[in-house]
Every structure is written in structure tokens, then in C-alpha cells.
């Protein structure tokens, strides 16, 4: 009886090992000594992670900050906006909603207008970098969506911004 069980176990092990075999020869030469011939050129690199989700990518930065009462995009944001422009050009199915924001000072009407100018300034830079306008939209939140809730210069500086929201 025990020899029957041993024979069954040995047979099942052989069957399991045979099932794991792929039958594909991985190193068939393909015209070269090491197998890295023409087949290596036909394999495209696969990027499983969208660069938008990479925290180390320049695309992770999505806010442009402005000086008080200004809607001029600073030169320090040039490389970040160039990275976003390249991404958008390479991904024509992606859209960005540029959200203009202001600090709490000023009237609601004034802040809505200033937020719109900030959003449009960022949109204009992206368009100048080659992004089609069909991928861009500007909207103003004025002072309605503050990033920082304080009532001091540090909080106001955080709230004077335009955010890039991918859709």
C-alpha cells in the first residue's frame, strides 16, 4: 500500500513539473550568439505607471503661485509647465482644468476676476508650449477654495495660485 502511494506521489510530481514547463525556448539564438538579435529591437519598453502618479516626477507639482495682486507666471515655473505641456501633447486624450485662486483679501467679484486671470495666464503658457486649447480649460474659484486657512501672509501666499487638475 505504501509503495502505491509513493508511486502516485512520484507520478503526480512528474505531472506537476511537466505542467509548469512552458515549452518555449528562451534562448534560440535568433541570428546571434546570445539571442539578443532582431527580437530585442521589436520589444517596446512598457511603462506601467502613469507619470502623473509618480511623486518624483515634475508632473507631481501642479500649483503655480503668484505674487500679491498679480497674474504673471514666474520664470521659476517654466520647467514644471514644460513637463506638463510635453505630457499633454503626448496624451491628447487628457484634459486639464486650470483652477485660479486668490487670497481672502478683496471683494468676491475682484477675486473671481483675478482668479480667472491667473488661470488664463497658465493656460496661455501651456498653449504657447504647444498644448492644443481643446485640452485646456480655465476656471476661477476666487477666494472660495483656500489651501491655507490662516489670516497671515504665509496663508495668503498659499492661496494665491492656479492648480492644474487633470481630468
From TrEMBL:
Residues 53-167 form the OmpA-like domain. It is found in: Cell outer membrane. Its main location: membrane. It holds the Pfam family OmpA. One of its GO terms (cellular component) is cell outer membrane. Keywords: Cell cycle, Cell division, Cell outer membrane, Lipoprotein, Membrane, Palmitate, Signal. SUPFAM superfamilies: OmpA-like. It is a lipid-anchor. Residues 1-18 form the signal peptide. InterPro entries: Bact_OuterMem_StrucFunc, OMP_bac, OmpA-like, OMPA-like_CS, OmpA-like_sf, Pal, Pal_lipo_C. GO terms for biological process: cell division. HAMAP family: Pal (MF_02204). Part of the Tol-Pal system, which plays a role in outer membrane invagination during cell division and is important for maintaining outer membrane integrity. Belongs to the Pal lipoprotein family. The Tol-Pal system is composed of five core proteins: the inner membrane proteins TolA, TolQ and TolR, the periplasmic protein TolB and the outer membrane protein Pal. They form a network linking the inner and outer membranes and the peptidoglycan layer. This is Peptidoglycan-associated lipoprotein.
Amino acid at each position: 500500500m505504501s509503495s502505491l502511494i509513493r508511486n502516485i506521489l512520484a507520478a503526480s510530481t512528474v505531472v506537476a513539473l511537466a505542467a509548469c514547463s512552458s515549452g518555449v525556448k528562451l534562448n534560440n539564438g535568433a541570428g546571434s550568439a546570445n539571442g539578443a538579435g532582431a527580437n530585442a529591437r521589436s520589444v517596446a519598453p512598457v511603462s506601467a505607471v502613469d507619470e502623473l502618479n509618480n511623486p518624483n516626477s515634475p508632473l507631481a507639482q501642479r500649483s503655480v503661485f503668484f505674487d500679491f495682486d498679480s497674474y504673471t507666471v514666474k520664470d521659476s515655473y517654466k520647467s514644471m509647465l514644460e513637463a506638463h505641456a510635453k505630457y499633454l501633447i503626448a496624451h491628447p486624450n487628457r484634459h486639464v482644468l486650470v483652477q485660479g485662486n486668490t487670497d481672502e483679501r478683496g471683494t468676491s467679484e475682484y477675486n473671481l476676476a483675478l482668479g480667472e486671470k491667473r488661470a488664463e495666464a497658465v493656460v496661455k503658457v501651456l498653449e504657447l508650449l504647444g498644448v492644443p486649447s481643446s485640452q485646456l480649460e480655465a476656471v476661477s474659484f476666487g477666494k472660495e477654495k483656500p489651501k491655507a486657512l490662516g489670516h497671515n501672509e504665509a496663508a495668503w501666499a498659499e492661496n494665491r495660485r492656479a492648480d492644474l487638475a487633470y481630468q
